[in-house]
Amino acid sequence: MSTDDASGALAFPDLASRALRGSVVAASDEFFAEKENLIKPGTATFRPATFGHKGQVYDGWETRRRRSPAGGLPAADEHDWAIVRLGAPGVVHAVIVDTAHFTGNFPQACSVEGCYLAGYAPAASLASAQWTEIVPRSPLTGDARHVFTVAPGPRFSHVRLTIYPDGGVARLRVHGEVVPDPALLDGLTFDLAALENGGDVRACSDRFYSSPRNAISPGLSRVMGEGWETRRRRSDGNEWLIVGFAAPAFVSLAEIDTSGYIGNSPGMASLRGYAGGDWEQDSSWTELLPRTALLPDTVHRFRLSQAEACDLVRLDVFPDGGVARLRLYGSPTPDGLAEMRRRWAATQA
């Protein structure tokens, strides 16, 4: 299960990330560095000889040193743990345990478990949850990124990272597929493209400055780096991204937000939809929004008249530039909703 190369598994979104509204809800100890650092977006940073009242400041989670009752080394099964509530329930495909900058204070080993609890379970109830091992106890090294592939199984709402016996972990990443609860979406118009609703970026032409997945992430883009921005195009053509939905749906409203992009917003944009089949080999896309002029630093909203359902939408920007957010509001078809219900039932533990 442990491997140095998770290949396609790391292409899935990080379900634990604070950017997806994940949360570290409990930990056995966080004496030296706060548990919340585990799920911060971005890589861990380090400034040598930066001391607080508890010692060197680390951008990660670090526990105190464990001791045996006699004051010596702890027993082999001694451990610390942290529990993360995922930003959205999902099926896990890979876990990254990153000990960046922890060199003399990293754990000897780790393991990871997952569980699913409906609703909003308090942290106290997690101790009695039914946990499933997804990463067995595995050795760790210092200042290293450890990738563990996970065989797809049931959906989880929480994961528990256990470290043996103590020490520091900079980041925990939990890559997987969001499985939205159809009971929360039935009968509603919602953002079909949103990560938390099972949408994801399937392909894009360019990701030079920032990830296209930013465009469908929760919340507002506060700065340019929190949207999707391409490099300056120097040849004919244009840049694009393709978003997939959790199930076939009708899109009724599109929002193309260029907030924060002032000298680098696209000049124009268009939207097309596609249903089923092989989109890479098939050019029969349906126009949803014709090529339309965009303004810098503006939230553009367009009513769409869609005759056919789709499960993919392609955003073309002309010729290049940055898009802060793409929202595609609509409702799944009856067959699409049935597909979501089957997926929800199939991933039940």
In short:
This is Probable allantoicase. The chain is mainly beta and 349 residues long.
CATH architecture term of the largest domain: Sandwich
Order of helices and strands: EEEEEEEEEEEEEEEEEEEEEH
Low-confidence stretches: 1-6
| Full CATH superfamily name of the largest domain | Galactose-binding domain-like
DSSP strand tally:
21
What does the model show?
It is a single chain. This protein has one helix spanning 334-346; strands at 23-27, 51-52, 55-56, 61-62, 80-98, 109-115, 132-139, 145-149, 156-164, 168-169, 171-178, 190-191, 200-204, 228-229, 239-257, 268-274, 286-293, 299-303, 310-318, 322-323, 325-332. The protein has 349 residues and is mainly β. The chain has two domains: 7-178, Galactose-binding domain-like (Jelly Rolls); 182-335, Galactose-binding domain-like (Jelly Rolls). The strands form five sheets. Strands 12, 13, 15, 16, 17, 18, 19 and 21 form an eight-stranded antiparallel β-sheet that branches. A hairpin with a 2-residue loop joins strand 2 (51-52) and strand 3. The two termini are 20 Å apart. Mean pLDDT is 94; it is low at 1-6.
